Amino acid sequence: MKKIPIGIEDFKELISDNYFYIDKTKFIEEIFNDGAKVKLFTRPRRFGKTLNMSMLKTFFDIKEAEENRQLFDSLYIKNSPVFKEQGKYPVVFVSMKEIKGTTWEEMQKSIRENLSNLYEKYSYLKNSLNERNKRKFEKIWFEEINGSYSGALSFLSEILEEQYNEKVIVLIDEYDVPLTMAYEYGFYDIAVIFFKSLYGSVLKTNSSLKMGVLTGAIRVAQAGIFSDLNNIETHTILDEAYDEYFGLLENEVENALLEYKSEDRLEDVKLWYDGYKFGNIEVYNPWSILKYIKYKKLEAYWINTSGNVLIKELLLISDGIVFEDLDNLVNGHEKTIYVNENVALGNNLDPNRLWELMLFSGYLTVKEKINSEAYLVKIPNKEIQSFFKSLFAEIVFKGKSNIASMKGALESKDINTIVNILEKVVLNAISFYDTNKKFENPYQTLLAGFFYALDDYYRMIPNPETGYGRADIVLIPKNKKWSGYVFELKRAKTKNLEKEAEKALEQIEEKKYETILINEKIKEIIKIGLVFDGKKAVAYY
Known about the structure:
Blueprint: H1 11-16, H2 26-33, E1 38-42, H3 49-60, H4 65-69, E2 91-95, H5 104-121, H6 131-141, H7 152-164, E3 168-173, H8 177-184, H9 188-203, E4 209-216, E5 232-235, H10 250-259, H11 266-273, E6 276-278, E7 281-283, H12 286-295, H13 308-316, H14 322-330, E8 335-338, H15 354-361, E9 365-369, E10 374-378, H16 382-397, H17 401-412, H18 415-429, H19 432-435, H20 441-452, E11 458-462, E12 465-466, E13 469-470, E14 473-477, E15 484-491, H21 497-510, H22 515-519, E16 525-533, E17 536-540
Helix pairs in contact: 7-9, 8-9, 13-15, 16-20, 17-18, 18-20
């Protein structure tokens, strides 16, 4: 029985070391016959993008052509007319997910290190270069600060064409990872200029290019990252083209379960890991299928971290009512969203893009296309449903310890601990920029998300109509013997926070916000006026 390839993303290793492989080599045929010069594929993480890119590299690469040829002996592509292209082209394959840094200086260093490692693989070319190109090559190879890094990929393709007298195939995996990290840490505007030049020089103004392929989770539109690439063709999860090559089809899952003697669990596996719709077909999450085959347990194995930074930002600038929509989705309902397939970063991040981002990140899937822009979406399967609420504790609050502490504090009516935890949540999860806004909305959204993760114990309702108005947050206990809570949140307008918190409590009393809890037959109701001054909280109750 073949080994299960969990975490194996290198095609050559997978085939050579006798790992189980589901043949996706028809992708090679289609991508070579595609007339588009440059192609971008956006899919959620762990859906086979890197393995497919490694497969392309192994197939086309001229350097180890003979050694690689036998790897395809038993696969679809061996009998395709395209097989004559095997081992014919020089290939540049670079993964951008290794480029990291919390400052632009750190990221620049990471860029230099990664491009130096790439050049190391082609160091055999150096001796055939003229003095000028040799010096240019060495500057990048030896990580010199004044190296031409924005042109490093285009320069490498030029000297490869000269060496082999063949145009070059350029493969860029996870192109958006450094851009998302730059956005997270506040230097996106600088980083995007560099990556726009890096990608543009190798994929647009490069006469040595045979074909370019990029992968990522999202299509980044801000600041025209692709404005120089009018030759690019993008294939998102909404496109029918290439819909079968990322993720596993039902017959592929059936064969895998049969191979590992788990075919009797197909219906359960389908409920847990199927449900994603790419283009016109349903696909399974390959990461979770491999994990299930190995451990034989129906559990949540996949969580996508790629879009979480952006999801966090969008949650914080959304209205607190967004959690009602999330709750409806968890309970099996659908939601209509509008999609334009480009995620704009920078100052133009739009809270209305939350649902679109969750769709492209793999947390939602399309149930039905309504028109060219509108889609009906839902949670794809039981795996996502099982962690959907706790997801927000992980994204926004970076862990569950505060959730457990808050549950105990609410149950024991320890108001001081409740306030301290909420203050800590704000301190860790909301930026100074958010706390400098005019209204209390960021606080309400943040705390609504925090309480939303407590759903096993309390039902959180943001902005409910109750009494003579709308309360900010109401917590209805699942156990009627526990206390219910009403929170009225304010942003400080004076230095007397205690007085403002007292006024917030008076508003709860005057407008009878507790009515919703009385109607739920909750016997003990605790009312808390909460005032925030930046990241400091003061409560009155």
